[in-house]
Design goal:
Its main location: membrane. It is a single-pass membrane protein. This is Membrane fusion protein, multidrug efflux system. The protein has helices at about 10-40, 90-150, 155-215, 330-335, 350-355; strands at about 40-50, 55-60, 65-70, 75, 80-85, 220, 225-230, 240, 245-250, 255-265, 275-280, 285-295, 320-330, 345-350. By secondary structure, the chain is α+β, with helices and mostly antiparallel strands. The protein has three domains: about 55-85 and about 230-250, OB fold (Dihydrolipoamide Acetyltransferase, E2P); about 90-215, Helix Hairpins (Orthogonal Bundle); about 255-355, Elongation Factor Tu (Ef-tu), domain 3. Strands 1-10-13-12-11-14 form a six-stranded antiparallel barrel. Helix 2 (about 90-150) packs antiparallel against helix 3. The two termini are about 75 Å apart.
Length: about 350
């Protein structure tokens, strides 16, 4: 049977198919060469994520929330009010402590006044000692004279006894004056001790007042730095406790970085300061630049909750990953499109040390 002769259409289809096959082959060849060149030139990994400081907003005071001043994803400035807690109980504590402090101040003033009065009394008692001592001295001279007169039979026994009785009285008065002076000095010392106790109590109340004022300031929760608020889980009227996490804030004042988990076979030639090329999955047409700032001192599995122990069972060798921390270069406006947790691919040029 005679073979059918190809038509012009068949020839055209065959030609077009051939050209398409050649184009596909060339495209695959270019892609393959480019891929091989990338693998030859760069150490790369797609096990990498963007990181930022995402910190909790924690309450340092408990109470009812009376106002929430932020929304989810809202940018905030340092010092902006985020939450307000009912402060009436804290105000009462401040007022009560201030009243107690004022009471102690008044008590100290009373003790100071008493001390001045006791000092005047003590000076008067000291003067009485001198007067009583002078009387004793004078009466002692009279007694000595009457004793001589009595011995010379120039004075009667009654006269000598009267003089001796007066001497005993004056000596008793002198001793009483000394005791009064000692008692007044002791009362002054007691008052000074009371003043020391009151002064110590005043210092305690001042510290307590400062603490209550500090607790009062905690009822207004502000942004610790410029940033962006995360998910909002609280509302007005909720009861919170001190130490409770109320929200999360992303820090805008620090640089962003990438944690790239490279295989242990890839890190031999990596050094701090090496330049890095970064491509984000969210922006495949945009290239970011970075710099290696540190390599982890241990593999990622070593920091896990239950690190592997190859001595406890059958050993299976698994290539480990070493976290490499990379700072993302560029201004805040350039890197603002990157968000914490985004997946990126990281490329580190193997030849940059050789060029250096």
């Amino acid at each position: 049977m005679k073979a059918k002769k190809p038509t012009v259409t068949d020839k055209l289809i065959t030609r077009i198919t051939g050209w398409i096959a050649i184009a596909l082959l060339l495209a695959l060849l270019v892609w393959g060469i480019e891929t091989l060149w990338e693998y030859h030139r760069y150490e790369q990994t797609n096990d990498a994520q963007v990181q930022e400081y995402v910190n909790p907003v924690i309450s340092r005071a408990g109470g009812f929330i009376v106002a929430v001043k932020f929304e989810e994803n809202q940018p905030v400035k340092k010092g902006d009010t985020l939450l307000i807690i009912d402060n009436r109980e804290y105000n009462l504590q401040v007022d009560q402590t201030r009243a107690m402090l004022e009471k102690e101040v008044a008590q100290l003033a009373v003790l100071n006044s008493n001390t001045n009065t006791l000092r005047q009394t003590s000076r008067a008692a000291q003067s009485q000692i001198a007067a009583a001592q002078a009387k004793v001295w004078k009466q002692q001279l009279d007694y000595d004279r009457y004793q001589k007169l009595y011995n010379a039979e120039s004075a009667t026994a009654q006269q000598l006894e009267n003089v001796k009785a007066n001497l005993d009285i004056y000596q008793s008065d002198f001793k009483a004056a000394q005791d009064n002076y000692a008692a007044s000095v002791s009362r002054i010392q007691d008052t000074e001790s009371e003043k020391a106790v009151v002064s110590a109590e005043m210092e305690r109340l001042k510290a307590l007042l400062d603490r209550h004022k500090l607790d009062l300031s905690y009822t207004v929760i502000t942004a610790p730095y410029d940033g962006r608020m995360g998910r909002r889980t609280i509302e007005k009227g909720q009861m919170i406790n001190a130490g409770e996490v109320l929200a999360y804030i992303v820090d805008n004042e620090t640089d962003k970085w990438v944690v790239a988990n490279y295989k242990e076979t890839q890190v031999a030639h990596m050094q701090v300061g090496d330049s890095v090329k970064i491509k984000a999955d969210a922006y495949p047409d945009k290239t970011f630049r970075g710099t290696i700032i540190s390599l982890s001192p241990a593999t990622g599995s070593s920091f896990s909750l239950l690190p592997p122990d190859n001595a406890t069972g059958n050993y299976v060798k698994i290539v480990q990953r070493v976290p490499v921390r990379i700072r993302i270069n560029g201004s805040r406006s350039e890197t603002d499109v990157l968000r914490a947790g985004m997946n990126v691919s990281v490329f580190i040029n193997k030849q940059q040390h050789a060029r250096g």
